Amino acid sequence: MAAASDKARFFLEQSVPELKEYERKKIFGADEITSIARKRSDFEHKINARGSTPTDYARYAEFEINVDALRRKRIKRLGVKTTHHHGPRRIFFIFDRATRKHPGDVGLWMQSIDYARKQKAHKKLSQLFTNVLRLHPTKPDLWIYAAQLAMDDHGDMSEARSYMQRGLRFCRGTRAMWLEYARLEMAYIAKIHARREILGISRQKEPEDVPEQPQEEDENVLPLPRLTAEDINPDVGEDRADDVALRHLDSTPAWSGAIPIAIFDAAMSHFKQDSALGYSFFEMISEFDQCPLASTRILTHIDQALMDTCPRSWQAQACHIQLPTFNIPASSPEFPSAFRKALRRLKEGRSMTDGEAPLCEWARSWLQRVLEVPDVDPGISAVAESVLKSLG
Q1: Which of 7, 240, 247, 319 has the fewest CB atoms below 10 angstroms from its CB?
Q2: Residues 157, 189: contact at Cβ < 8 Å?
Q3: In the chain, where are the structural domains located?
Q4: Prediction pTM value
Q5: What is the dihedral of CA 23, 26, 29, 32, to 10 degrees?
Q6: Among 365, 279, 285, 346, which residue's Cα sits nearest to residue 316?
Q7: 244: left (phi over 0), alpha (psi -120 to 50) or beta
Q8: Whole-angstrom distance between the N-terminal and C-terminal Cα of the chain?
Q9: Coil, strand or helix at 269
Q10: What is the pLDDT of residues 353-382, one digit of tens each?
């Protein structure tokens, strides 16, 4: 117990100059300083005692985050100058001690990562991800989160791909890893598409298949087409946009959808052509209707693969049925012919599938969504309602 008290006293003494500065500059009053010191003493004795829990560290960090937030507001209101690094440094130190004491608690790691992200401490954030992924390499959510932050916060697609590739080495049997990897690539395509739209760069032709470059074989690395426009960053400021490079993206794998297709093929091969996984890929890709050319190419590939390998599965039939109406609004003149083709596929699929009941259940949900579209043509509504009745 004496050792715990000595440790607590040692850490408390480190904060004395900081508290004196706050009192001298009248950021906090004497009573507030006393209250802060007392709370810190309680927390330090608790976390240094035997049997401390992750919750003790989390509460300590939360208290210090609140104190630092109040300090920032007081400084802004009073217009005084003070040392800004005291608060974040103390909070990071608490999180470091917490993760050393309880390295298996992922919640503490995530709290630390979230705080580093809010503080825009990019070097610290990278270090935290390195440490937590080294300790928990089989947790797919961590790899996915790291890749998303690399993409969203830094616009660094190379780093995001690196996280997902390394994550697949340890979590190859996790379906979410494959799906989120493909989603990441689709988000990248959508960002490139948005930049081209802003710059007024229109597409002149359909994306062509780009031959894959020979790569050194590695069973732990998912082979992907080599990028020829890897240096294009859709998140840089407009004043730095490379118009010429964006205009030449038409034939690159990053734009044409070759990378999501490669991910899909590898995933289906690993999971023995599982139609449920293929359906999940199809539904996810369908969400990216803002880049229709790439999405249509990928969906067509998924549909063809499912119909070739498992045509009697209701999931394969569901993908095959809805493909003709992808990205065609119900109010569009092209929709009736596409809808007619989809209904013809539905009729054929009901006789082919091994499980008609699941397909009919899916079809009812699909047709109901068509009926819920505002200003849908009365003729289409009548046909959809008729088919709904026939489904039972």
Answers
A1: 240
A2: no
A3: 1-102, 173-201+224-310
A4: 0.83
A5: -70
A6: 279
A7: alpha
A8: 73
A9: helix
A10: 887 899 999 999 999 998 888 878 889 999
